[in-house]
Amino acid sequence: TTFIVTASYVEFAGEVGVLVCLEDITHLEQADQMRRDFVANVSHELRTPLTALLGFIETLQGPAKDDMAAQKRFLTTMHHEASRMERLVRDLLSLSRVEGQERMRPKDMVDLGALLKSVCHTLRPLTESAAVEVVLDLPDDGISVPGDSDQLRQVITNLLENALKYGGAGKRVDVTLHLSEAEPALRGSGAVIAVTDQGPGIDPQHMPRLTERFYRVDSHRSREMGGTGLGLAIVKHIVNRHRGRLRIDSKVGIGSTFKVLLPAAPQ
Ligand code: ADP
């Protein structure tokens, strides 16, 4: 805990005394530390692909100048590294946009069933290349909630992409939508979107930090799969903006369920 202590003489009712003020600035220090960590993380994440790109450019200008086969190979890797930087910058922009809007409550009604179908359709090529079967289970009656359609699309996309990335080839991913009549976490009724995979699961020790920016359970695997480490942080901020809840249930060796609860009507 950090305090600022100030003392001054005061005169009151003919008496002179000393007024001591204690100001707790722990939260300011923590916010400052978080900002420094964030800048350090972003710099590190950008520097790695940038260093690789510079190395390849120098090799192409020098030793590999006349080696066509090497040039082709290097260009593929350079494309991979540049894409990684692009994904990172895109996710950073999304995160900062969402953070800036967190106080503004979205009001448009969003048809969640239609949104889920559309995301599953868009991700079909990824689903096929991951050799994963996505099973979508929607209720007969449509469910709409007040929300920002683009942001809710991003939430579903991020969760489904993670299930495809970490769920494992040949496995199944279930995506469901249902109404929850009385959800205590929402202090009322709400819609529940659940994405369940049959992947390796997540050890309980990682749970509290999973939605932190750049937190990864397995950095090597995340990077290999094209992850930026920002997907769940973006999900958390969007869900907060909707006054919803994100719940993660996971069992090592069995799989994970990421549940998004969204209030049905403004509270
Ligand atoms: P990333 O871009 O690394 O996927 P995320 O913020 O989306 O970043 O996720 C953070 C970390 O949480 C991932 O690196 C991964 O270790 C873990 N994770 C996310 N989703 C799953 C899942 N469905 N199964 C297992 N681990 C997961």
From TrEMBL:
GO terms for molecular function: ATP binding. Its EC number is 2.7.13.3. Residues 41-266 form the Histidine kinase domain. Keywords: ATP-binding, Kinase, Nucleotide-binding, Phosphoprotein, Transferase, Two-component regulatory system. The keyword Phosphoprotein applies. It catalyses: ATP + protein L-histidine = ADP + protein N-phospho-L-histidine. The keyword Phosphoprotein applies. It comes from the Bacteria. Coiled coil: none annotated. This is histidine kinase. The lineage of its organism: Bacteria, Pseudomonadati, Pseudomonadota, Alphaproteobacteria, Rhodobacterales.
